[in-house]
Amino acid sequence: MKAAVLHAPYDVRFEERPEPKIEQPTDAILRLSATCVCGSDLWPYRGANVINSPTTMGHEYCGVVEEVGTGVTSVKPGQFVIGGFAFSDNTCPNCLSGFQSGCLHGGFFNTAQAPMLRIPQADGTLVPTSGKPSRGMIPSMLTLSDVMGTGWFAAEAANVKPGNTVVVVGDGAVGLLGALAAKIMRAERIIAMSRHETRQELARNFGATDIVTERGEEGVARIKELTGGLGADCVLECVGTPESMKQALGSARRGGYVSYVGVPHGVSLDAQQLFFTHVHLHGGPAPVRRFLPKLINLVEEGEIDPGKVFDLTLPLDQVAEGYRAMDERRAIKTLLQP
Ligand SMILES: [Zn+2]
User: Fold this and answer.
1) How far is the CA of 121 from the centre of ligand 1 (A)?
2) Total-model pTM
3) β-strand partners of 117
4) Could you tell me if 20 and 82 lie in one domain?
5) Residue 136's CATH number
6) Quick one: 279 and 300 in the same domain?
7) Does residue 66 contact residue 31 with C-beta atoms inside 8 Å?
8) Which of 134, 135, 179, 132 is CA-nearest to residue 160?
9) Cα(101) to centroid of ligand 1, in Å?
10) How confident is the model over 127-174, as pLDDT tens digits?
11) 20, 177, 183, 290 - which has most CB atoms within 10 Å?
């Protein structure tokens, strides 16, 4: 089979890779219906992480079970399934406390921009949908593997409650779906920080009530102005840069909640600021496995349509263009069809 391989910054190739096989009795093999490029894939793509040797890419997927190992009991060939970007046994103490992305026997995928994918810990990782989803529903199902689950975690970690005022820092796919999650959690006011017109429109479509185009100190001042000088109850930091974290912390009210789900790059925190603002901080790689049953149900019921974040669909063999379009911000998120 052919799959995406990153050779050097800005150099993604679609090349021959061995087809995955069952290696452990707990494995399953999926034939992917769709995969995609993640905002976090842009960090290595842009050279923020050192690439020592050609590396496979991709961690978002959904598809049909092709084969299972002898120890797998919860899914069977032919079923349509979704799993998170991390695999997990879903039985260890970390999983049972709801942090499957910190599973003692888990790990992260990096071979999903491919037609076939090996799933370790298949019983703990995969969740079947109630039936085979329609073609139109597949993009939304795909988002549950990461972006929608991560947006949901961002809202939950920021303690979004009915009636709250929520600020979303970052207008990438995760930030946009964080706004959607806050809407489903019945936030009253959702302020999206974005200066990009099509993203603003999508943020409003997902539930944002206000748009703030200012950034940095001006952005913080604008949030204060919109919240009677207080700051927001909940702030979702969905980027991972020093500037975005600073903007997020500055936008929260006294005792407010800041979640951070953008992979931090170069961010350091000022303990004195944390101390004197009474801020609650929570984040990390989203335990999307925890949210899958609920989110699958919301998609199946037509309550949410997170697949709208895909504004570019390409055949998998054009994966390099998928990366370029996102890097140049011509696309919010690229769906790839194997
Ligand atoms: Zn576990």
Assistant:
1) 9
2) 0.96
3) 30
4) yes
5) 3.90.180.10
6) no
7) yes
8) 179
9) 8
10) 999 999 999 999 999 999 999 999 999 999 999 999 999 999 999 999
11) 177
Compute the distance from residue 58 Cα to the ligand 1 centre, in Å. Answer: 22
Q: Are residues 96 and 188 in the same domain?
A: no
Q: Alpha-carbon distance 189 to 200, whole Å? A: 15
Cβ-based burial of 320 (10 A; exposed 0-12, middle 13-18, buried ≥19)? middle
Note whether 95 and 35 are same-domain residues: yes
253: domain CATH number is 3.40.50.720
- Ligand 1 centre distance from Cα of residue 105 (Å): 6
- The pLDDT tens digits for 213-238 are 999 999 999 999 999 999 999 999 99
Pick from 327, 302, 299: nearest CA to 147: 299
Contacts of 34 (CB under 8 A, 6+ apart): 61, 62, 63, 138, 139, 141, 142, 335, 336, 337, 338
| Domain housing 170 | 150-283
* DSSP characters over 262-321: SPPSS----HHHHHHHT-EEEESS--HHHHHHHHHHHHHTTS--GGGG--EEEEGGGHHH
How many alpha carbons lie under 13 Å from residue 127 in its C-beta half-sphere?
A: 20
Side chain identity at 121, as an amino acid letter? Answer: Q
- Calculate how far, in angstroms, residue 25's C-alpha sits from the geometric centre of ligand 1: 17
| Ligand 1: centre distance to CA 144 (Å) | 19
